[in-house]
Amino acid sequence: MLMRIVLPVVVLIAIVLPLVTSGWDAFLTLVWAKALPVLGIILLLQAGQVSFGHAMFFATGAYTAGFVIRAIPGGEIVIALAAAIGASVVAGLLVGVFVVRYRYIFFAMFNLAFSMVFFSLLEKFIHITGGSDGLSIPRPEVLGQAMERSEYEFVLYYLALALLVICLYGVHRFLDSPLGHTLKAIKTNETRIEYLGLSPRRVLLIAYIISAFLAGLGGALVAVFQGIATPEYAYWVRSGEFVFVAILGGTGNVFGALAGSFVFEYIRVTATAYVGDTWQLTLGLVLLVIILFAPSGLVGVINDIRGYLKKDPVASGHNKRPAGKTEKQRGEEQ
Amino acid sequence: MSLQILVLTVLDGIAYGSLVFLVAVGLTLVFGVMRILNVAHGSFYALGAYAAASLGLVLSAWGISAWFAYPLFIVAAVAVGVSVGGLMERFILRRIYVREEYLQLLVTFAIFMILDNVQRLVWGVQPYFYTEPLSLMGNVTIVGIPYTAYQIIFLPLVALFILFGLRWFLRKTLAGSLIVAVTEDREAATAIGINARKVFFLTFIIGTTLASLGGALDSPTTSVLPGMGADMIVLSFAVAATAGLGQIGGAAIAALLIGLGRSSAVFFMPELEVVVPYLIMVIVLLFRPEGLFGKTTARKI
């Protein structure tokens, strides 16, 4: 339902929108770009693993794109994005080989540790990265064409949208493939996967590399759009935001990445004027409320409402947390 | 010259290691008993440091002797740890003990975000300095190198006191025995009438108080500024994981190891200062995934 009807409708609206009104383009470009790392987080959450460090791949993509554009005269966005993808995949492989050996707490904290190290290296090596001022990125050419600012942003809007749709669809298909189902089985019972003769580590590594790729692509798009990459791109607060948006949107469906990213950016743009000082506080409180009261996020809430309208007890039951589950039952499930 | 640098490195490592141990031991205790990794643990460290620094500034504004700072630091740390930690356990953590692990992590992460912001709202982004307790104890000379007594005698003594005090508490007192019983087998402990809820509450308060005590005692040696909580949570996790999560005695040795590793990096490869603790952790865990002193657990099917 979500993939067959809602997504095409949303994409259609997104395609038509810049042609009829202006003013939303810049906002939506960021929504498309920032939905990508969130998609990566959702992918890992299928295996029950949460990463507090994916900002490092976001920054890897951003800085790689920046370096490439600065190195090539004129800069070329296609090469920059390709290089960013390559770099984040390699980074994902290197970090992934280590972190997929661990689960839950260790998985989350190792990602956090790696990203903190990366963050301080970005700040320390001033002569390469520009330190905390960041790396400024000139506007690149698109397929050899030098562009005006408005033209460039117009192209970037559609480029980001197209990449996001491809990735949403790709991850959706991946999750429905045998590999995707194996990934979900890591959350329920990993030992059983081994008895089937499969390697959970390898499956998780593949998912991890894909998630790093998504984060890197998102980072590169944001960087070429904003014309700057800063160490803050790798900071833990940003990693926390990705996880936050994933939980906000709902982790049960890839569509949650888009829904969460849209709502989050909208709130950020409109609310920072009022809650600028308490932004992180607000995020934390909302995150707590979602986890305690609506663990399946926006998409879950939408499903609930639809269930009520249809009086469909199955759909409306989606958002209920497994109440009354005792420690014992939980132990038996594991 | 090189001998002096060597001695200085060791002294730095001991001073730093004792401090990190104070924070890490609370983290590892809470994990050992409750199986929850409290990401907000670093915030308690920061809150303790801020509370102590502002108290100290009040003291010096009123012209009261800085000798009072030492007992007041402890009072401040206990007040922060018990009040904020108690509220957190009672109203939030208690709801999530039966939930999935990644959700438990997210909840403590959310609290971390909230506390990080709260401390920025209350104390602003300007660094605080209150170094009088440090200078009050004077210097000692070790192998020809003058070093502050606060860092090289007082802090390690406090760390040792906490280490042995905690071991004594867990092994010899009734409350400690109850904690150990719940850690070993929660269901059996509940069956013989132990109130596991109370034990969790108590354990969590002890853990957060240790974190804020670490922060309070650290405040004279450093400038208290935003972001210190985030650094400390990752660092104390590195210590706890290197030792093996839940290992109290092991955490002391791991803290010393990481302290020495970091101080030698400061002298020999300053760029790598932040990397070294994690490098040690990664190397240890590659060879011993359960940590230096952790026990391998049988897998459940």
Explain this structure to me?
- The complex is a heterodimer of chains A (334) and B (301).
- Chain A has 16 helices and 2 strands.
- Chain A has 334 residues and is an all-alpha fold.
- In chain A, strands 1-2 form a two-stranded antiparallel ribbon.
- In chain A, helix 1 packs antiparallel against helix 7 and helix 2 packs parallel to helix 7.
- The longest helix of chain A is centred in the middle third of the chain and has 27 residues.
- With 301 residues, chain B is an all-alpha fold.
- In chain B, strands 1-2 form a two-stranded antiparallel ribbon.
- In chain B, strand 1 and strand 2 form a beta hairpin.
- In chain B, helix 11 packs across helix 12.
- The longest helix of chain B is centred in the N-terminal third of the chain and has 33 residues.
- The radius of gyration of chain B is 19 Å and the shape is globular.
- The interface between A and B is large, with 50 and 48 residues.
Task: Describe, in short, the structure shown.
By secondary structure, chain A is mainly alpha-helical.
Features:
heterodimer; A: 334 residues; mainly alpha; two-stranded antiparallel sheet; 16 helices; 75% helix; globular; disordered C terminus; B: 301 residues; two-stranded antiparallel ribbon; 2 strands; 73% helix
What would you call the shape of chain B? globular
The biggest chain-chain interface is: A-B, 50 and 48 residues
Main sheet attributes: strand count, strand direction, barrel closure of chain A: 2 strands, antiparallel
- Kindly state the percentage of residues in helix of chain A: over 70%
How many separate helices of chain A?
Answer: 16
**Class from helix and strand fractions of chain B:** mainly alpha
Helix amount of chain B: over 70%
- Low-pLDDT regions of chain B: none
Gyration radius of chain B, to the nearest Å?
19 Å
